[in-house]
Amino acid sequence: MNLFYMYMPTYDVIITNSHIVLPNKIIEKNIVIDEGKIISITNDNPQCDIKINATGLISIPGVIDPHVHYGVYSPIKQAASTESHVAAIGGITSIMRMFRTTKLFSDVLPSNLSISSNSHYTDYSIHASIFNEQQADEISYCINHDVMSFKLYLNLGSGTGKIHMDMDTTTNTIQESIVEMNYDLIKYVIKKAALFNCPVLVHAEDHELCYHNEKRARSKNTDGLKTWSTCRSGSSEALAIKNISELAREFNCILYFVHIGSIFAMKQIMQEKKKGTKIYVETCPHYLTLSYDTYHDYKAKVMPPIRSIRDVNYIWNSLSNNEIDTIGTDHVANKLDLKIGKNIWDSLAGFPGLGTYLSILLSEGINKNKISLFQLVKLTSTNTAKIFGMHPNKGSLQKNSDADITLVDLKKEIKVQDIDFGGYSDYGVYDDMKLKGWPIKTLLRGKIIADNFKVVGTSGYGKIIKRCITEYQNSHLD
Asked: What confidence score (pLDDT) does residue 475 get?
């Protein structure tokens, strides 16, 4: 017997014959995985316990959604399970939760982390929203618990400050709060975050302008998504962007503008970048697909609102021109009976989007030649991993990185409502839409967690992502 073959090592998994998307080229080779890591990308075919024949499929780094809301309308133990279940089917391997509380982080974060550690199908991370100075004083506490990014809601105040916080871990009750953001608090958070070189995520709408616009529209009894967009105008986004960018330059703070979907906002961001502001930009699938010109259901109420078709086309162009860094869903796990009111004012803002995130981009972006596969990978994985300190473990298909891999079929065409994503929500804004291009298998650290629209992983396999704080450099995203 040949002793070489007798003692040849056996690896865990091999993915054969897929088209592998690397930063600057697409190759057809095999991906060898062992102990949760990519061991090699090779022409060889070593002995492995599991062999995945991926002929005709495309391998991309596992998708990272930087912007997810869960634990607001159902307890975190349930929400972590249901929403990571949706994510796994949708080709997403890591989700970043927007944690919202008015309490001290030291009082509530430990229980949330403990419960989360037993409930996720995917890996996960947390952004901490800051609503008061006491929370800002706990930034270092958060960093020590792998929470290294912080969010400001500039839309809260002047009569528009109502917001639902995350549920307490001991209750099953929706937590409604009134928040008044002011200049002194915003400045304090910017200054504190800059000291630790942590990015500040910004919901950029000027609450005073939104309040006065909304008051005027209500007095005229106007209704509808276009009215909602007019009240929360692109100019209100631009004003908020301008004001906080001035503070960011003063303290050398990194800004990450979430859910950007208007021409006004994008143009203002480009101006602020020219002034030297350190800025990253996120958009969402709904700003690439939905417009009040063609979509009129209250289901699409969101903040900031969906805009005109002209805005939709502008955001696609911004993606194509590499002016946008990431794409997040702004997913909100809520129910239709809570969502829909008798008019736009009584309807709840936010809707689910995790399950269709990748397919929207494949169908409307890749298959319609609006973005390339290289851009897709950067927008959905690599850039997010770099911005939030997950790289090189996450966000790329390279030796020694986590074997987070999404296998995609660009030709598969399915109507959205034909898939049971298993989430908390009972509706979607894309339910009647047929999309071409879907994730077929989702691997997290070498384990198949979703296969052909069925979750085969285990709740609790997902782990919190270890992050590090790195110096901001534009070259990080090259």
From this structure: 47
